[in-house]
Amino acid sequence: MSENCFHCGQSIVKERIAFDGKEFCCAGCKSVYEILNLNDLGDFYELNRQSGIRPDESQNSQFDYLDTAEIFDRITDFSEGDTTIVNFKIPVIHCSSCIWLLESLHTLNKNIKYSQVNFTRKTVQISFNANALPLSELAKFLTNLGYKPVITLESAERKEEKYDRSLILKLAVAGFAFGNGMFFSYPEYAEQIMGTTDFWMEKYKHLFRFITFSLATPVVFYSASGYFKSAWYGLKNKVVNIDVPIVLGIIMLYGRSIYEILTDYGPGYFDTLCGLLFFMLLGKLFQQRTYGALSYDRDYKSFYPIAVTKVDFNGQHENILLSELEIGHRILVRNQEIIPVDAILISGEGNIDNSFITGESASVPKKPGDKIFAGGKQVGSALELEVIKTVNQSYLTQLWNKEAFKKHETGLDTLTNKISKYFTFIILGITLIAGIYWAQVDFEKMFQVVAAILIIACPCALALSAPFTFGHVMRILGRNKFYVKDTLTIEKLAKTTSLVFDKTGTITFSNKANIALEGAELEEFDLKNIKTLLNNSNHPLSKALYDFLPANDDHFPVTNFIETAGKGYEADVRGRHYRIGSAKLVGVKSKNLETAVYISKNDQLLAKYVFKNEYRPNLAHLFTKLKTYAVHILSGDNSSEEKSLAEIIPNAAGMAFNQSPEDKLMYIQALQNRGEKVAMVGDGLNDAGALKQSDVGIAVADDTHAFTPSSDVIMAGVKLPALHDYLNFTKDAMTIVKITFGISFFYNIIGLSFAVTGHMSPLFAAIIMPISSISVVAFTSASTWWRSLKYFRLKTD
Questions:
Q1: Is residue 393 part of a domain?
Q2: Average pLDDT, stretch 580-600?
Q3: Distance separating alpha carbons of residues 684 and 777, to the nearest angstrom
Q4: H/E stretch holding 538
Q5: What is the domain count for the chain?
Q6: What are the backbone dihedrals phi and psi of residue 17, each rounded to the nearest 5 degrees, phi first?
Q7: CATH number of the domain enclosing 126
Q8: Who contacts 158 (Cβ-Cβ below 8 Å, separation ≥6)?
Q9: Of 581, 615, 649, at which residue does a domain stop?
Q10: Which of 174, 225, 458, 716 has the fewest CB atoms within 10 Å of its CB?
């Protein structure tokens, strides 16, 4: 018998449904299989075995608000007649079979005309007939297939993507000039190599030289403008960065070339200059490649819904934009929906999950009249709330916008810039000494020697080594579910001395718990009754306990059901009176630092189930490997898990519990004030301040498309036990960069020895310089790949 669902590939744990000779884990997967087969799309499973996606069975699939005229216009790109076009963000797109299925939607629904997937951005564009298929029904249709669209306030704003088009244009200009410059320079190169004089070359050489000058000028003043700005910015901040010697080399090549063609001394080096800038810009483009499917700088708007259900005093419901909410409005919040504003509970039994705000994993009960903060999630029945603050004034928004939660990077303290500072002064010193010497010996040759020194010493290989190395490292780490924001982060990871871990949702699973029964095993009669009663509650602990108890198909009538807010509930089942909930409800004393569900029968304690966090596997092995780091644990929960944590991390440098977001931030600051380089590993909004304050913020997400705070790294939760390998790989990357620096210096030392003594012409220097750059790029590509095999043997190709 199969252990995995035929559609989604997940392990079949509770429910097993047999259909058409196959096994499914739920009715949703079985339904999708039926839909695909009925429409002759069974090839979906041949494209990628176990590639299906389990349909979302939660109740939070309400999309009726999409049919409201104002919201419809905000969401759709085009709507005229029977044609409407919409772009949906669908984060769960992950393989070729997903693309194939989503682009076959027109075969599943006759009202869909076409659909096109953008895999990188995780979006699908759909053209459909909105008159026959409302937008809300289209969203539900996708959800039932397992591809639930994510519709948030941020996605509705349709911000332009941060894409550096100017760099592409600069690269194109340099490439065009490089290719054509080589073409027009070829006759002179051929003449110098063959030693013969061509009549036509002599007649038109001035024209050809003017053309190469015209091609190189926009490259210098447009394509290379970023290097000039960077050098100027560095000098303004009293830092001599890597771009300063590069700019000197560019000016020398350009100036020397103009001098040669004006004096008819030679053809100049315009083609070489264009080639060097082309390859350097290519390296910069490679460096700036990012993971478009992820967002590292999300704000609170990616967390909020685009619309809410407003309730008037007559009980009528109206879908309105979140931005239109005013103080005094009443709104309806359903099960699993985010509360978008600070509000007062008017009716309903609140059960608020504040884990994104406080880090506390336990839900907080609320009764009518209680205040509820924005960012909480309702778990249970629908609530009616009265707005007391608009979305821009809510606690969640204020927390996100705090200045302490924002840090600014200059990027001027990298290893490359530190080396280039000394490199530049040394080269300028050598050039000055050589210039003074040759001015006395041979004034004409002095210009040739100075030009050769600055050309051969141009740190192009030095500038290329880090971008290409870190570019390869980012690509390899990304393939292994460790997504780094930029190259500066790799350097910071390699320098880390302290690791700070959030507990809830980071080293523990966010949605799992270990449940243990304290006392004697229950009889089958009571188990069935309790299971029946648990099925009548939406409380997360009740749901978890319902899943934990043995499965049974017997459900009995429940009478005299009474729920006490914040304590639990009681009812009669088959002639027995049961109470399920807190110790106070069943009339016993409890331990302060534990989460437990007590069950009594006929006023006698029957059972006690203790809930403990479930830790991710192999953590003890991970923390053993991390012994070279100072490891700290922070948690918004109480200290009930301190003993368990001490067993997993026997050498922890510090643990702190009941930590608010501000407390976590201050803890990081205290470590940094002691000179520590801190990497914070956390999740959720409650860690946003600490992640920003730390030198490197690593956001752990069990679904990397789900909400994560601003961070430098997004890491898949399943990969947390491999954190030590990721950190070691960044250290190896720094070693490779240092070796490439050594290779670059070797070329410079050899070249300078010839240039200073007057045995190297500027032409030969211009030819040998790109060769050194190519060899450095080849070395860093090969060595990075080779070192990655040590850590990610199966994931590097």
A1: yes
A2: 81
A3: 39
A4: none
A5: 4
A6: -115, 120
A7: 3.30.70.100
A8: none
A9: 615
A10: 225
Residues 6+ apart with CB under 8 A from 328: 386, 387
Nearest-CA neighbor of 135 among 231, 233, 69? 69
What SS3 class is residue 143? helix
- The two three-digit tokens of residue 81, written as one number: 């007649």
Is the pLDDT reported for residue 218 higher than 90? yes
**Cβ neighbourhood burial of 650 (10 Å; 0-12, 13-18, 19+):** exposed
The partner residues of 344 in beta bridges, in order of sequence, read: 371, 386
pLDDT surpassing 70 at residue 320: yes
Could you give the CA distance from residue 669 to residue 692 in angstroms, rounded to a whole number?
A: 11
Task: Pull the structure tokens for residue 394.
Answer: 């809510």
Average pLDDT of the residues in 769-787: 78
β 330-333/317-321 pair status? unpaired
pLDDT tens digits for 522-531?
A: 888 888 888 8
DSSP 27-56: HHHHHHHHHHHHTT-TTHHHHSTT------
Mean pLDDT of the region 738-749: 81
Q: Is 243 part of any domain? A: yes
Residue 573 CA to residue 311 CA, distance in Å, equals 37
Give the CATH number for residue 347.
2.70.150.10
Residue 85 is predicted with a pLDDT of 86
Fill in the amino acid letter for 462: L
Q: Using an 8 Å Cβ cutoff, are 649 and 508 in contact?
A: no
Whether residue 518 is contained in a domain is answered as: yes
Last residue of a domain, one of 615, 647, 670: 615
> The tokens of 76 are what?
């759709």
Which helix (H) or strand (E) segment holds residue 343: the answer is strand 343-347
Do 313 and 390 share a structural domain? Answer: yes
Which residues does residue 514 pair with via DSSP β-bridges, in sequence order? 612
> Would you give the distance in Å from CA 719 to the centre of its chain?
14
> Do 274 and 348 lie in a common domain?
no
Give pLDDT tens digits for 282-295.
766 755 553 343 44
**pLDDT for the residue numbered 31:** 66
| Domain contains 102 | yes
Are 254 and 228 contained in the same domain?
yes
**pLDDT value for 62:** 63
SS3 308: strand
Q: Are residues 169 and 253 in the same domain?
A: yes
Residues 207 and 283 in one domain: yes
Domain range for 333 is 303-401
Indicate the range of 18-27, 297-306, 688-697 predicted with least confidence: 297-306
Q: Is 338 in the same domain as 258? A: no
Tell me the H-state helices in 321-459: 355-358, 395-401, 415-441, 443-456
Task: Return the pLDDT at 499.
Answer: 93
Model confidence at 544: pLDDT above 60: yes
Name the phi and psi angles at 142, rounded to 5. Answer: -65, -40
Instruction: State how far the Cα of 1 lies from the Cα of 23, in Å rounded to an integer.
Output: 8
CATH code assigned at 533: 3.40.1110.10
Is residue 246 domain-shared with residue 318, that is, in the same domain? no
Structure token pair of residue 173: 């200009």
Burial (CB < 10 A; 0-12, 13-18, 19+), residue 127, is: middle
Greatest pairwise CA separation for the chain in angstroms: 115
Q: What is the mean pLDDT of the chain?
A: 76
pLDDT of residue 620: 85
**Cα gap 774→768, rounded to integer Å:** 10
